[in-house]
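Example complex used in Figure S2.
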Amino acid sequence: QKEVEQNSGPLSVPEGAIASLNCTYSDRGSQSFFWYRQYSGKSPELIMFIYSNGDKEDGRFTAQLNKASQYVSLLIRDSQPSDSATYLCAVNLFQGAQKLVFGQGTRLTINP
Amino acid sequence: SAVISQKPSRDICQRGTSLTIQCQVDSQVTMMFWYRQQPGQSLTLIATANQGSEATYESGFVIDKFPISRPNLTFSTLTVSNMSPEDSSIYLCSVEDQDRNSYEQYFGPGTRLTVT
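Predicted assembly (228 residues):
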């Protein structure tokens, strides 16, 4: 089992709809969870982080964390064509020293 | 967050040669990280570089192939040695956000390496 798993997509969503991106992780001891957005040819950009169970909202983005189910998600409301990118889920693992483990990423396309 | 720059932004190299990638940060940071992103793949951590100590390498990565220097709190280098076409990747450095005392990492723009 991979440490961090995402559906690679592609996920296609119409403009204005809600895009839902999901991620599961294997290490129950994980404490920190991150969502990065990566445009083609660019480096990853941190857009959300969450440490506690529940929802965290920032503008059109909502991160949701359920540690019991080892599940973290990212919702994008009112999706825009500029949201088209690959979204990477990352989990901070404490394995002697802290390190980030990334999922394979979900490619999201917003259709005008 | 810190401003991170990398040099070179891209390079095309011949197999058997070595390339040193530089990462410069505009503020002092304790931990710097080096990642590799192979074509169409996600990010894989190569090593963690702390100032004043040897870099810590992840499974599958060795110092002879990827020597790292960390001479001060704002700079690090990664060398890709004795390159083969399989080393063609994007190499990224990242730093933790020291001000927030959190584990958020921010990435430099990356170095796109092609080995022929």
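The CA atoms of residues 33 and 50 of chain A lie 5 Å apart. Chain A is about 0% helix and 60% strand.
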